[in-house]
Specification:
Aminopeptidase, 5-stranded mixed β-sheet, alpha+beta, 32% helix, globular, 148 residues
Length: 148
């Protein structure tokens, strides 16, 4: 049976945080007050931010976040930024990441975004091939990163 992506809901926070522990295993979880504030900002700002997940047997196994950024150029069309793309290690290479990303791309299209931006660490060669397969052009722009 094919598992379909859906947008997050309030009760998905514990499952999403468990999945994010796979994304950055050495990173400490945010303090509860910080997490609650960030989660409220996500859940209450669906016009500008959402996250798609795939669940299997109550476990969040894949996810991608999407921010919609208002814009004054490109005829006022917004652009989208994708972040925190992750499939649980036990469920990789089964198409779940592809399905989640297709949902994110379609969401950006429905919102009339003129482009989607994402960054991937330079050493993540398999991830780069995954994004190529989705139609992203790794040579169209040069990305820069400043850790704050």
């Amino acid at each position: 049976m094919k598992l379909l992506p859906r947008q997050i809901s309030e009760e998905d926070l514990p499952g999403l945080m468990a999945l994010y522990a796979c994304l950055h295993p050495k990173e400490k979880q945010p303090e509860p007050a910080v997490l609650k504030k960030a989660w409220g900002g996500i859940i209450n700002n669906r016009d500008f931010f959402t996250c798609y997940i795939i669940e299997k047997d109550g476990m969040v196994i894949a996810s991608a976040s999407l921010a919609i950024v208002p814009n004054l150029t490109r005829q006022g069309r917004p652009y989208a930024v994708v972040e925190n793309v992750i499939t649980h290690p036990g469920f990789r290479r089964q198409g779940h990441g592809f399905e989640v990303m297709q949902a994110v791309i379609e969401h950006a299209r429905m919102r009339n975004c003129y482009k989607i931006i994402l960054l991937s660490s330079v050493n993540r060669i398999e991830a780069h091939a995954f994004y190529d397969k989705l139609g992203f052009d790794r040579h169209a722009k040069q990305g820069f990163h400043l850790a704050l």
